[in-house]
């Protein structure tokens, strides 16, 4: 039976679709810019612990200024909010620094190909650790995801174990981040933008001592001088760009998460990775063998099959 929607409802639905479409396009564009500047910085200044910290610091500062000047309204949060946020922030910090360490060792495209396997981690963690079970097609969709990632990894010309493991650890950490944030967000009335702002601040506090312990100011000062002498004063702007764009893309992604289901979000995230993989290969002229590209394509196709199966 063909029931026509009332005109107003149809209009509202179209407006909502347009809004989400705009969020997605903005999220992907900001993410592509972040990935490019992040890699440009890491090529000249291979200290991912500092660049990860600066990304969180830029976001925290931008949000504090926005709250102080009332560009954005500060959230009303209590101790329970921060307690619930702690495991999310630990997982976010690990996932972020691990991805950045990975990108400092391998091509951006390679990190994102491995990161397109995140749904496989999600299913494995949920089944093995949380005792959840899924319909058979969901498990079957893991075959192309894992197989495609494995094929891309073994045929990667510039394979590096730290780069590979960083992306794998990031996948695992982000699965936990998503599980914890789902639990932590329940019953809280904080917007996606403010939730991400608080997450940045807490992650910054967690990451800073580790960044100092792993790399430290002496190494940073020497590395900074070398980078500025090689690149020139523009290097500072690259660092600013990677930091600011990191915050912006995450903020927009959390704002869209507010409006959509986690499943739609994960489909959007995979499409984002396609944009990043293609643009970074074009910009950095990474050599890609056909078999390597095939692996990436199979993994991404697997992610789409996974989202279909989960639906
Ligand atoms: C990071 O630095 O946190 C990673 O680039 C994040 O990756 P994602 O947001 O694309 O999962």
TrEMBL record:
Q: Name one GO cellular component term.
A: chloroplast membrane
Which GO terms label this protein's molecular function in UniProt? Answer: organophosphate ester transmembrane transporter activity; phosphoglycerate transmembrane transporter activity
Q: How does it sit in the membrane?
A: Multi-pass membrane protein
The regions listed as transmembrane in this protein's record are 20-37, 49-69, 81-101, 138-155, 192-214, 262-284, 290-307
User: Where does it primarily localize?
Assistant: plastid
Q: Which residues form the Sugar phosphate transporter domain?
A: 18-307
Q: Which UniProt keywords apply?
A: Chloroplast, Membrane, Plastid, Transit peptide, Transmembrane, Transmembrane helix, Transport
Localization (cell): Plastid, Chloroplast membrane
State what protein this is by name: Sugar phosphate transporter domain-containing protein
Q: Which residues of the full protein are shown?
A: 91 to 401 of 401
